[in-house]
Design goal:
By secondary structure, the protein is mainly α. It is about 75% helix and about 0% strand. The protein has twelve helices and no strands. Helix 4 packs parallel to helix 7, helix 5 crosses helix 7 and helix 9 runs parallel beside helix 10. It is elongated. The two termini are about 15 Å apart. The relative contact order is 0.14. The N terminus is likely disordered.
């Protein structure tokens, strides 16, 4: 049964507004603020970081929070706060490259498949189905065995792994858009298929692509961190959040979990913020009220 707020009932009206805020703009603004602050901290890392992230100080090994080192130091005396700030650069840049690459390639593949149809659409659909059967971690292991471990290899591997997820969702929407009356009208007016795809289909699908890329960004960051954690991503002494979690493992056994704890906490908060941002954009741009 539907309910409607009554202006005369001030308590119900305030409750309704609070619920709308929590379900709508409030969560979107909060998540967007977190993402923006982390991105800003990454961009201003040289200004904000109190120390060189790779500066080793044997006299300050495993120090707790002090006025000199707000978040303490790691097993080599490096400042954890400085490494988190500089680590945000690699930790954000790699997922950005992966999601943008997979998003653009997947969108192009999806639109061309929906427009051309026939054997090409069946071929693309079959390839996407096959690609779903190869987990990103397995691909990363194989790629590392062939090309060697590194962040670049992990980025290429994840771009391939995320492409079918992007393409499959956009293809379904492109098929619906392809059969709308305005597309037929544009064709009757003499507009070529490529112009229709570039000037009309692609812009109309951009909100969906933006939601997909935003949501995938958090999961990609998590995957990049996992690859670095097991030694397939960024390599020491690089400042990267997943690598910091792995490097702090010995500190946990020594009763100094700060490095792993803070890096892991930043990863969790950022991934949650990306998910909330993606959900908020989905509701605002796509009208998804789930």
């Amino acid at each position: 049964m539907s309910t409607y707020p009554l202006a005369s009932l001030g308590g119900e009206s305030r409750t309704g507004r609070l619920r709308a805020l929590a379900r709508g703009r409030g969560g979107l603004i909060a998540a967007g603020t977190v993402v923006a602050l982390v991105a800003l901290a990454a961009a201003l890392a040289p200004v904000l970081a109190p120390y060189d992230p790779d500066a080793v100080d044997p006299a300050a090994v495993y120090q707790g929070s002090t006025p000199a080192h707000w978040l303490g130091t790691d097993d080599t005396g490096r400042d954890i706060l400085s490494r988190l700030l500089y680590g945000a650069r690699l930790s954000l840049l790699a997922p950005l490259v992966v999601t943008v690459t997979a998003g653009l390639a997947g969108t192009a593949l999806a639109i061309s498949s929906a427009w051309l149809g026939g054997w090409y659409d069946r071929l693309v659909s079959g390839l996407l189905t096959v690609a779903f059967g190869f987990p990103g971690l397995i691909l990363a292991v194989v790629a590392a065995a062939v090309f060697g471990a590194g962040l670049g290899v992990a980025m290429v591997t994840l771009s391939i792994a995320y492409l079918p997820y992007m393409a499959r969702t956009v293809r379904a929407a492109a098929l619906r858009e392809r059969h709308l009356p305005y597309v037929s009208a544009l064709g009757m007016l003499g507009m070529s298929g490529w112009r229709i795809c570039l000037r009309h289909l692609a812009p109309n699908l951009m909100p969906l692509v933006l939601v997909q890329v935003t949501t995938a960004f958090g999961y990609t960051l998590l995957d990049i961190a996992a690859f670095s954690f097991i030694g397939l991503g960024a390599q020491p002494p690089a400042s990267e959040w997943g690598l910091m979690v792995a490097g702090g493992a010995t500190g946990i056994l020594a009763g100094r979990p700060e490095q792993s704890l803070y890096a892991g906490l930043v990863i969790v908060v950022f991934v949650i913020a990306c998910n909330l941002l993606g959900n908020g954009l989905s509701r605002r741009l796509l009208g998804d009220e789930r």
